[in-house]
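Reviewers of the previous submission asked for a worked example of the structure-prediction workflow described in the proposal, so we include one complete record here. The input consisted solely of the amino acid sequence. No template or homolog information was supplied to the procedure at any stage.
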Amino acid sequence: MREGKPESLRLLMIVQITQSFRGGIISPIMALFIRRQGLSITQIGLLGTAGMLGWFIFEPLSGIIADRVRKKYMIIFAVVTSTVIYASYPYASSIWHFAVLAFVSSSVMSTYAVSVKALTAEFLPTSQRGRAYGRYLSIISAGGILAPFIGGFVTSSFGYDLPFFISAGIGVISLGAVLVMRSDEEVNGGEAEEGEAGDASLMTRPILSIFTVRGLYMFNQLLRQHFLPIYLNESPNFNASEAEIGAYMGVLRIASAVSQAFLGELNDRLGSKRIIVSSVVLLALSYLGMTYFSGIVALYVLGGLQGVVMAAANMSMMIHLMAIMPEGRTGMVMGLYSEAENVGGMIASPSLGYIYDGVGPAFTLQSVSAVLISTAAIALLLIGKDDRYEKSSHT
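From that input alone, the workflow returned the following structure tokens.
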């Protein structure tokens, strides 16, 4: 099923590049835009919870649906609806407006995320999967390198509203690629395959282990989404402007794009477990560095390191999951994988908001570092080798 679908994989890549670009424009300014409407850090943390609630409710449902309908229809729905949501942000002014937008946005994008992950798992070859997936992600990341620079520059020059409208317009471009995608024709390639996988358990120890690791890793994701831009802007260590924060995120994307092809092959050689553990530890140390070092040059250096290790962690977790998931259940597995992210995010967002307001910004980064160290230890203890993947990687 996975072989012989290069054209569909290329079209899916175009969709992801476009969506990554529109999200990258907003990434350096979203938290700052909300902050400038008068919301406290604790309230921003609660907004993160509202967003995670949408993912929590709808991603498992999307996983069930994705194994029964055409996934490209789910992607089309998500792209069109999210375009309207992006265009609505400049008109929001209260915590309730932002909470509704966060919930609706995550609810809609759950259909996109699950469908794209499932299709990627279906279209990738099983032989040398790490190499193929690394190059695939490298191209996607390269396509979004300029987005944070553009978002930061446009905001500094023209204000906060224009980047949202630009992102809304860009989203429509990916619709053409989705519409001509032809490999998503039947439910996972046919009823026979679905029947063969229908009895396969998804609650095995290997799958539950990677779900646990991914859930804890979300402390990193929520920190970056809701709190880190504010820390970089308000911390005396950096006092970074919107353009400088955009440049930092651009440096991170460049480092990620350059390293991903190499990291994919490294996964084939060393196995996912070693990459997961080492990259999560290095990410924890980089956040400790942000509380110790100062200056824009140091910020960019740390951004480069974070780009490499975050790419390594995300890629290795996904490659390991694709290796151990049962055939014909890609939608359900990716839905549950995303649900693990949601549970971690719903815990992380209000916790970090409370710590940031109650104890201090530096302690927030130190807390995330501690969680990441614990995540690496759990990965070391629980994640095992996957013989099926290691054999296919060297054929």
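The domain at 6-393 is CATH 1.20.1250.20 (Growth Hormone; Chain: A;). We consider this example representative of the routine output the project will generate in years two and three.
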